[in-house]
Amino acid sequence: MAQPIELQPQAITVQELAAINSRQVPERYIREGVGDLDASFPVLDVPTIDLQLLASSSSTSGDEFDKLRSALSSYGCIQAINHGITSAFLDKLREVARQFFALPSEEKKKYSREIGSIEGYGNDMILSEHQILDWTDRLYLILRPEDKQTLKFWPENPESFRGILNDYSTKLHVILEVLLKAMARSLNLEENQFLQQYGDQATMQARCNFYPICPRPDQVLGVKPHADGSVITMLLQDKEVEGLQVLKDDQWFNVPIIPQALLINIGDQAEIMSNGIFKSPVHRVVTNSERERITLAVFCIPHPDQEIQPVEKLINETHPRLYKKVKDYVSL
């Protein structure tokens, strides 16, 4: 399927808009039904999963597999702890992202994305004259395979940015393997069932998100409601400022921050592989009238030629096949 055609680039970043006018929001960003400014959304009690237990063969790991299956079936997301990445490293990662977005506009725009491409620094593609835009700027980079990295989009300032992000991708690859094996085992499958479908030519794509202060959080979203087209998405939340919300039972819930945890959610392709047992959650990002917010999302996506389909052992008379075989799902 042909990629969508971008009509024109945005002439100004959201960060620049927020600096120019701290009291008003352009009409292109205003949505109906975002929510009452004074409303307090309930908190989603996202299950905390110990990845060390999932990776071990100890007698206590069985309960953690049951907990994982329940979490991914009911919520579609987990707070992953004991993942092997130190809090100090995660803080460095947050800091280099913050330093990048604090650079002068001229410096950041050296890494601007090109028309029709998601990679690089920028904001929403404008695909329609009536499109409502998200209140966010982002830096989108391909992490893996390393030979697919486009280094002209990788900031050289701050100086440590490239090295830290590369280290992070290596650490996440280890976590991803543990998680995919554990997901299979939680469904009583051979542990490589999901890993084989994910494939060894998959991509890992990072999106550093910057959400400026917004004067109208009752009318403007940081990111519109959506479900991820990935297999797995791993999110490093801002350490202090919440903003992520998940839709459950037709109600929006705030996702709390656990500073040392990774918020991991199922993408559509894992829902397909599990024949609908695991749920890809619809989520959005709300804005904040007092504080800016920075997050780092990493999307784990099979190669476009890799076929994705429900695992045969998960198809039976009581649980019929729910999805057809797909390739290049994110472009559909």
Automatic annotation (TrEMBL):
Signal peptide: none annotated. It comes from the Eukaryota. Residues 202-302 form the Fe2OG dioxygenase domain. Keywords: Iron, Metal-binding, Oxidoreductase. Coiled coil: none annotated. Pfam families: 2OG-FeII_Oxy, DIOX_N. GO terms for molecular function: metal ion binding; oxidoreductase activity. InterPro entries: DIOX_N, IPNS-like_FE2OG_OXY, IPNS-like_sf, Oxoglu/Fe-dep_dioxygenase_dom, Plant_2OG-oxidoreductases. Belongs to the iron/ascorbate-dependent oxidoreductase family. This is Fe2OG dioxygenase domain-containing protein. It comes from Gossypium barbadense (Sea Island cotton). The lineage of its organism: Eukaryota, Viridiplantae, Streptophyta, Embryophyta, Tracheophyta.
